[in-house]
Design brief:
The chain is mainly α. The protein is 65% helix and 1% strand. The protein has a two-stranded antiparallel sheet. Helix 1 packs across helix 3, helix 1 packs across helix 12 and helix 3 packs across helix 4. The longest helix is centred in the middle third of the chain and has 30 residues. It is globular and about 65 Å long. The relative contact order is 0.20.
């Protein structure tokens, strides 16, 4: 007697499984939580880069780029979740515009103009995407201890991002009593929800904190609801708002920082798989994630946006909640697409005060450091692994501290822009070099005396 194979049950318990259906009404809050965790950070790099451009971009031009960024982030996230050919990791990776590129792209926009930035990102994206497809030929140099060191560095690098958000972002009232109070209230709401909620609802602590923080911010006068309809009701993303120009200096600088971004992506996806799925990442997943990073960044450039990459905020959220279901994250990506097509939706998300975001994310960033430590522990504390991890982190964190940034002053400006303030880049390079040059067996051998 033949038995037909039953389809997997649609259940809320599937949020902890990579595949499987979750009831739509219950999936959306979890997907939305992932998007809200990165929404403001997805838009902030564009405003920082646009402010540096010469000639300066108008407010209307910046608004178009912000709308395009939301649309592109949604497309890139969908490709990561549901790959196209070999492009995409099939992992719950959320994509967005990265802070990693801000310093270099701001310099390009200031020296060569915004069209040269677009051209540089197109070339850099194609380079990273192709490297991703060829990952099986160079994957072995990214040893487990290198990936673990990079993941730990990513967590450390985000501590200042969380603190900046907690204090109010780059606003003039950074560190004001209002901002700090708002951050504390949001963090307290997250902790209380995580303590008192039962079952799967416990994993919605970040969303609960965002809602409570947003409501409190409205009463504190920190939210401008008058801008919700400022972009109209419906607006299609603008394709090729700038015709790309290709300047050799701009392209070279962008390609270097794309390599750094690739290291962060390897670290992010490794941390996500380790913290969310409890296993090591595969070569196919690294290849797909890098290919998506690169080629999606080229697509982003065609819409005038800086590169998109995996968001560490969401890696921290996965590590904290263990919600890894692709269908669930897809509902968040759909919300991102809607935000790119419906300006009121995007304006509503963009009105989220930085202090609220900081109150929710500061603990998540700590979770990434813990994931990195767990990965280091899983590698084992051999003399070689301890040397690689300890030295790369010591140099990476010490040499990029704001108070010690002058240690890079003898190097060319391009080197400074890539490494002087990027702990992940320094840790990646140092750990790779140490992994290649240190002998395989460094453990101290016990001397046995012959009688």
């Amino acid at each position: 007697m033949n038995r037909t194979k039953q389809a997997p049950e649609c259940s809320i318990n599937n949020i902890y499984q990579l595949d499987g259906r979750v009831p739509l009404g219950k999936a959306i809050p979890f997907g939305l939580q992932h998007i809200l965790a990165m929404f403001v950070s997805n838009l902030a790099p564009i405003t920082l880069i646009a402010a540096s451009a010469q000639p300066a971009l108008s407010q209307a031009e910046v608004a178009i780029l912000l709308q395009n960024a939301m649309f592109v982030a949604g497309i890139a996230t969908l490709i990561q979740l549901y790959p196209v050919w070999k492009v995409g990791s099939k992992l719950p990776v959320v994509m967005g515009v990265s802070f990693t590129f801000v310093a270099v792209l701001s310099s390009i926009a200031a020296n060569y103009g915004y069209p040269s930035l677009v051209g540089a990102v197109i070339v850099g994206g194609l380079m990273e995407g192709t490297l991703g497809l060829l990952a099986k030929y160079w994957r072995k140099i990214i040893t487990p201890i290198v990936a673990a060191s990079v993941v730990t560095a990513i967590g450390f690098s985000l501590f200042t991002v969380g603190t900046r958000s907690f204090g109010g972002g780059y606003a003039e009232d950074f560190g004001s009593a209002q901002n700090l109070l708002l951050g504390v209230v949001t963090l307290a709401a997250c902790l209380l929800w995580n303590t008192l909620a039962k079952g799967y609802l416990k994993q919605l602590s970040v969303l609960a904190g965002l809602v409570v923080g947003y409501i409190v911010a409205i009463f504190m006068g920190k939210v401008d609801l008058g801008t919700l309809m400022s972009g109209g009701l419906i607006a299609l993303p603008r394709f090729l708002p700038y015709m790309p120009q290709f300047h050799p200096g701009a392209v070279a600088s962008a390609c270097i920082i794309f390599l750094v971004s690739a290291a962060e992506t390897i670290g992010d996806t490794s941390a996500l798989v380790s913290g969310g799925l409890g296993r090591e990442i595969t070569s196919e997943e690294i290849s797909g994630s890098l290919a998506c990073d690169g080629y999606a960044s080229t697509i982003a450039a065609l819409f005038g946006c800086p590169p998109v990459t995996s968001f560490s905020q969401n890696v921290g959220l996965v590590a904290m909640t263990k919600v890894v279901n692709r269908f669930t994250i897809m509902t968040g990506a759909a919300c991102m697409l809607l935000a790119g097509l419906l300006p009121p939706v995007g304006n509503f998300f963009a009105s989220l005060p930085e202090s609220v975001l900081g109150g929710c994310t500061i603990m998540m960033f700590g979770s990434i450091v813990i994931s990195g430590m767990q990965m280091i522990a899983n590698c084992g504390f051999s003399q070689r692994n301890v040397t690689i991890a300890s030295l790369s982190l010591a140099i990476g964190i010490g040499f990029t501290a704001t108070s010690e940034a002058d240690i890079w002053h003898i190097f060319p400006e391009t080197i400074q822009s890539v490494f002087a303030s990027n702990v992940v880049a320094v840790v990646f390079v140092v750990s790779i070099i140490l992994s290649l040059v240190l002998p395989k067996d460094m453990d101290i051998k016990k001397v046995v005396s012959e009688e």
